[in-house]
Amino acid sequence: xxxxxxxxxxxxxxxxxxxxxxxxxxxxxxxxxxxxxxxxxxxxxxxxxxxxxxxxxxxxxxxxxxxxxxxxxxxxxxxxxxxxxxxxxxxxxxxxxxxxxxxxxxxxxxxxxxxxxxxxxxxxxxxxxxxxxxxxxxxxxxxxxxxxxxxxxxxxxxxxxxxxxxxxxxxxxxxxxxxxxxxxxxxxxxxxxxxxxxxxxxxxxxxxxxxxxxxxxxxxxxxxxxxxxxxxxxxxxxxxxxxxxxxxxxxxxxxxxxxxxxxxxxxxxxxxxxxxxxxxxxxxxxxxxxxxxxxxxxxxxxxxxxxxxxxxxxxxxxxxxxxxxxxxxxxxxxxxxxxxxxxxxxxxxxxxxxxxxxxxxxxxxxxxxxxxxxxxxxxxxxxxxxxxxxxxxxxxxxxxxxxxxxxxxxxxxxxxxxxxxxxxxxxxxxxxxxxxxxxxxxxxxxxxxxxxxx
Length: 454
Fold this sequence. Notes:
Layout: H1 24-27, E1 29-33, E2 36-42, E3 48-55, H2 69-75, H3 86-95, E4 99-104, E5 109-116, H4 120-132, H5 138-155, H6 159-171, H7 183-192, H8 195-205, E6 212-217, H9 221-231, E7 254-259, E8 266-273, H10 283-294, H11 300-308, E9 314-320, E10 328-335, H12 340-357, H13 361-378, H14 382-394, H15 399-411, H16 414-424, E11 431-436
Helix pairs in contact: 2-8, 4-9, 5-7, 10-13, 10-16, 11-12, 13-15
């Protein structure tokens, strides 16, 4: 699941020269290689190549009575293959300073790799071997289940996690990919999941259909395509992403409390489903307005609720879950229990004023510059460039959008931002979730719902 990404090794980023980049759209070489969408971009970075990829085998493919199946399958990929065990694979990668990891998110299996230019054939070969012929050892599977069960239980002690987790079930209907299953259901399903079910899931959903690989750095595109073609030759199967259930607009405000004993802070999430995807026309304007409202120390929330009134250590607002499906908009904060009511009142005052009055010209000018600048800095690393390209393609955007993004941001008007805020958000019908020592002492203000279908 997306919450277990931290269990997988992270990729180290290497800086490349941003000045050497001309145009992603014109410099990128893109081809269908055995059904895989392969995108290659050579940059000025010397000797290093970053590879990112995805295929539609995320949590939204898990059956309703086995919600952890996709995560368990993806987590087994680095436990050895039919040809070599996990120690041999680790030795081959470590011997040349390369990395390769897999993780499962809401919608996709994600692939991350890094190596020297000369070792790219080996990296692609190992990637194909792990994707195509994992060993699916019963012994490794049982150890993995114990590890993930421990992670689930540990998450239940985190107020931030519990607030966001409950918020997903409050605003998304059963069947929507962004609706998270309960801890009880995850634990129950993991206990009964078999390695045979994992093998069947792998056979059904793993294949070149819907798969993307983005290769950026010191790479020869023709040679890279040849290596992908050789390593994945004869591989078939896979499927395109499913069509997600849409979300109806909330008719009224809703409040939920998740009681957690002996917590020193209360985490809150306030927000609603937007019915927007990243690719929708109003999405960028709403993102810009949200940055003004709740991003960093210059955002209205931090400037007022934290710095001016001293009610919280951290508060912010952001859009979430809108790459493949319609997503949500949320404020996330933490308050001391004694300051909870004052903190929520202050937060709502800022929200109501932002929604009713909109943004100022000065705020717009600052936010446009910041957002465009942050984006361009992200493209200054080969890993950042690869990740951005993959994210934009998965969001349904053309390669040209990677180049056009800063200009599009700078072209957004104040009226467009204010219009998007008022069109897609309604403070009067937002859902509030509080997680911590809230409600009646010694008894939960709201309990976890029973095991449910997704």
